[in-house]
Amino acid sequence: MSNSEGAGLKLTEVLTELENFAPKQLSESWDNTGLLLQPYTQRQINKILLTNDLTENVALEAKKCGCEMIISYHPPIFAPLKSIVQSSWKERIVSFLLENRISLYSPHTSWDSVQGGVNDWLASAFPFSEATPIIPGVDPNTGAGRFLKLKTGISLDDAVTSVKQITGLKHVRLALGSEKSINDIIQTVALCAGSGGSVLKNVANGDLFLTGEMLHHDVLDAAQRGISVILTNHSDSERGFLRGFSSILQDKLNNRIQVLVSECDKDPLITV
Q1: Residue 156 CB-density burial (10 A; 0-12 exposed, 13-18 middle, 19+ buried)
Q2: Are strands 47-51 and 146-155 parallel, antiparallel or unpaired?
Q3: Staple 212 to which of 157, 164, 202, 234, CB 3.0 to 4.6 Å?
Q4: Is 74 part of any known ligand binding site?
Q5: Which residues neighbour 191 within 8 Å (Cβ) at sequence distance 6 or greater?
Q6: CA separation for the pair 102, 97 (Å, rounded)
Q7: One Pfam match, by short name (predicted)?
Q8: Under 8 Å CB-to-CB from 176, ≥6 apart: which residues?
Q9: What is the pLDDT of residue 5?
Q10: Which of 167, 89, 153, 77 is nearest to 122 (CA)?
C-alpha cells in the first residue's frame, strides 16, 4: 500500500473537523456547501489545498503538490451540471478531480457566518470594541456581515490603509460619503466579505461600508446617505482569511496532514 493510501487521515475525519469549525447549517439556504466531490475509490488525506476559487490551474496545482483534497471557499459546482464532459471548464475540473481521486469541499457562507470566520478576519483590520452580525444567524455570534463599534475613532484615510494592509492590496476603490472627506473620523464600520450589497442594505446608519463589490446604485445610495464605501474586488475581501486558517486547520487535525494555500488562486480583476 502506498504512503498516500496508508498514512494521513480519513476523509470523514477531516470533514468532522471542518463541520466542528463551521457547521453546514450556518450556510445560507441558497448556497451549495459541504462535500461536493467524493471519489469512488477514496484515499487517505495527507495534503489539503485551500483556495478561494477553484480554477483549472488550481486543480493542476493540487495534483502537482500531491494533494488528496481541495477546500474551495466558493463552490465551483453551483448551477446543476447536466453532463460531465470536456466542453466547459467546470466540467473539466470535475472530471479531472475524480480521475485523480481528489475530494472537494466548499464552506462558503458557513465560513462567512461563523465566529472567527471570514467576516471576523476582515473586521480585524479595525480596532473595535464590539462586533455583531448585521443579519443574526442561529445564535447571536453568527450571521451575515459584521457591524463594528470602534474603540476609538480613526480617520477614513487610516481605515483605507488598514484595509490595504489586511488584504495585501496596493489599491482599493473609495466612494466618499456626501459632504465627507478622507480625513473625517469614523466610529462605526459595517462590512460583508464578497458581494455585500444585499447585507449592507440592512444597516440604517454607519460611517463606513466595506465589502468586495456592490452595485453602482447601492454605492450611490450609501454615499448620498453620508456613508463612505470601500470596495476591494470580490474575492480580495475573502482570500486573505485562508493564510491564517491553514494553520488553524492543521492544528485541529493534530498536524497529521499538511494544509497548503494555493499560489495560483487570484481575483480575475486587476487594476491597470
Answers
A1: buried
A2: unpaired
A3: 234
A4: yes
A5: 119, 122, 123, 145, 146, 148, 209, 210, 211
A6: 5
A7: DUF34_NIF3
A8: 156, 182, 223, 228
A9: 53
A10: 167
* Ligand-binding site membership of 234 (annotated): yes
Element (H, E) at 13: helix 11-21
pTM > 0.90:
yes
Distances (CA, A) of 22 to 107, 114, 203, 234, 238: 8, 6, 25, 21, 16
Dump pLDDT digits (tens) for 58-94: 999 999 999 999 999 999 999 888 889 998 999 999 9
Question: What residue has cell string 487594476?
Answer: 271
Residue range 97-145, pLDDT digits in tens = 999 999 999 999 999 999 999 999 999 999 999 999 999 998 889 999 9
37-68 residues labelled b (16+ CB within 10 A) or e (exposed): bebeeebbbbbbbbbbbbbeebbebbbeeebb
Q: Strand order in 128-132's β-sheet?
A: 128-132, 146-155, 185-195, 208-213, 228-231, 173-175
- Cα(86)–Cα(181) distance, integer angstroms: 52
What stretch of H or E contains 98? helix 89-99
